[in-house]
Each structure stands twice: as C-alpha cells, then as structure tokens.
C-alpha cells in the first residue's frame, strides 16, 4: 500500500540519526519499534478480554445474589441502573 510506504518513510526520516539520509539501521530500529508496539497492543487486547470476563462474572453474581432483580443488583454494585443496563448489554449478559 502506497500510503503505508509513505508513512513508513516519513517515520524513518523523523527518527533517523543522520539528517541527510535514512540508513538501514534506522529502518531496522523502526521495524523493531513497530513490532514492540504490536506486541503491546496484543497484550492489551488480551488483558481487556480478561477484564471483561471478570466484569461479566461480577455482574452475573450480583444478579444471582439479588434474585435477578436488576435494580437491586445495580444498587449492590454501587452503580446507577443506567450504567448497569449499559454494561450488561455491552457484556452480552
């Protein structure tokens, strides 16, 4: 993709050590940085999945403990009923 190539070259130019030209070392450092960023994003997605799983369990337990009364469950969690409804919709409970 031409746009990606353009962005890559701009980034390489902005991060290059020598202001006259881009070296292979500059490109390799940029690729290493991109790989590290990609790995961090994957870990963040994995952590968000775990957080959603924990939240789902908390909401289900709150519902069970309050005889599936949503208003009481929201109250027991200390959150507004509108937030409770939004989260159960988001978590697909």
Task: Provide an overview of this structure.
The protein has 93 residues and is mainly alpha-helical. 81% of the residues lie in helices and 0% in strands. It has four helices and no strands. The chain has helices at 2-15, 24-65, 70-77, 81-91.
Characterize this entry briefly.
This protein is mostly helical and about 90 residues long. The protein has helices spanning about 1-15, 25-65, 70-75, 80-90. Helix 2 packs across helix 3 and helix 3 packs across helix 4 (about 80-90).
Secondary structure topology:
Blueprint: H1 2-15, H2 24-65, H3 70-77, H4 81-91
Protein traits:
93 residues
DSSP helix fraction? over 70%
Helix count equals 4
Beta-strand content estimate: under 5%
Shape: rod-shaped
Q: Gap between N and C termini, in Å?
A: 40 Å
Output mean pLDDT. 82
Q: What Rg, in angstroms, do the CA atoms define? A: 23 Å
H/E element sequence: HHHH
Main sheet summary = none
Structural class: mainly alpha
The tally of beta strands, per DSSP, is 0
Low-pLDDT windows of residues? none
